[in-house]
Amino acid sequence: MSGNRDAPGNVDRGDGGSVVREGATLAVGRDVAAPPEATATALRDTRRWPDWSPSVGGVESSDRYVETGTTGRVRVAGAWVPFRVSSATRLRWDWEVAGIPATGHRVERYSGDPDRCRAVIEVPLVAAPYVPVCRRALDRFAALVEGE
Questions:
Q1: Gap between the Cα atoms of 55 and 48, Å rounded
Q2: Residues 25-41: pLDDT tens digits?
Q3: How far is CA 82 from CA 18, 65, 74, 76, 106, in A?
Q4: How far apart are the first and last CA of the chain?
Q5: I want to staple 70 with a disulfide (CB 3.0 to 4.6 A). Which of 40, 41, 58, 63 is the partner?
Q6: Cα-flanking dihedrals φ and ψ of residue 62, to 5°?
Q7: What is the CA radius of gyration of the chain?
Q8: Mean pLDDT score, 116-130
Q9: Does 4 have pLDDT greater than 50?
């Protein structure tokens, strides 16, 4: 893997993507050339998850745009599993999949740059092998959002 290490475990890929340890999670981030609000709306849109997430093959949800308490199910590796959004704000949401706390999702603003932001997926340390999937997901997500 190419990139610069600025602290143990922190990797900047040099292409706007990075992995940074934040306590008990790894924050997998990707710069997005789109406004933060539009990026966050796309990230919360359950209908679009299969378009960018390599691990989500389908979604059935009580809400199109996740909110605290949104429930549904996702198809992962051919099996349907239930999910529940445990918390959500305009720029952040967390969920449980099959009753287990899963990834967090957030959008960070860049001060003074309203047309650019950073999308981040937070991965629990125990799920570190999932980081490459999150990188691929964020690359696909950025391509979709930037193409609009």
A1: 13
A2: 999 999 999 999 999 99
A3: 30, 16, 6, 10, 21
A4: 30
A5: 63
A6: -70, -20
A7: 15
A8: 96
A9: no
